[in-house]
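Quick sanity check, MarR family winged helix-turn-helix transcriptional regulator:
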Amino acid sequence: MSDELDEFFVEEVEVGDGEKSKTLNLADNPTVLLVWAANRFNRSFSRHYQNEFGISAMEWRMLVMLCKEPDVPVTAASPAVGYDKGAVSRSLSKLAKLGLAEAKVLGNNPRNRLWHLTPAGYELHDRILKSALERHKQVLAGFTPQDVEKFNEMLRLFGENAENLPE
C-alpha cells in the first residue's frame, strides 16, 4: 500500500515536554470509522428489534436466511450470515422456542437438521422487513443510488482485502 495513505492512519501527537509521538488517527482512519459506524448501526438495530419484536439482530438475520433458503443446515447458514456455527445454532434454537422456526431431521443423525420458518416466522419476518427497510433508508439518507452502488463496491473490496489479511 502506498505511503500516501499514511495521513489517514497515523497522526503526530504531543506527549509532553514538547516531544512528539505517532499514534493511530481515530478521526480520519477509514477502518476505525467503519468499525464505529458498524457498531452504532448494530446497536441501534439490535435495540430496535428487541424492543419492537422481541428478537435480536442475529435472530432477524436468521429469519432472513431461512426466508431466502428454507431447509438449510447450520453448516450452510453459518458462512452465509457471517457467524460461527455455535452462534447460528443458538439463534435457531431460540427461534424454535419462540415457534418461529423448526427443523426436520435429515437421515438417522438427530444433529443433521434442515431448518425452515414456521407460518409465525414468515409473519414476523414480513412485519420486521417493513421496519428494517425504513431504518435502512434512514441510515442512507443523503446517499444517491450511485453513492450506494459505489459504497457497496468499496465495502466488498474492503471485505475481500480483510479476508486476505494474514492471521
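Posting the structure with no commentary besides this: The mean pLDDT is 90.
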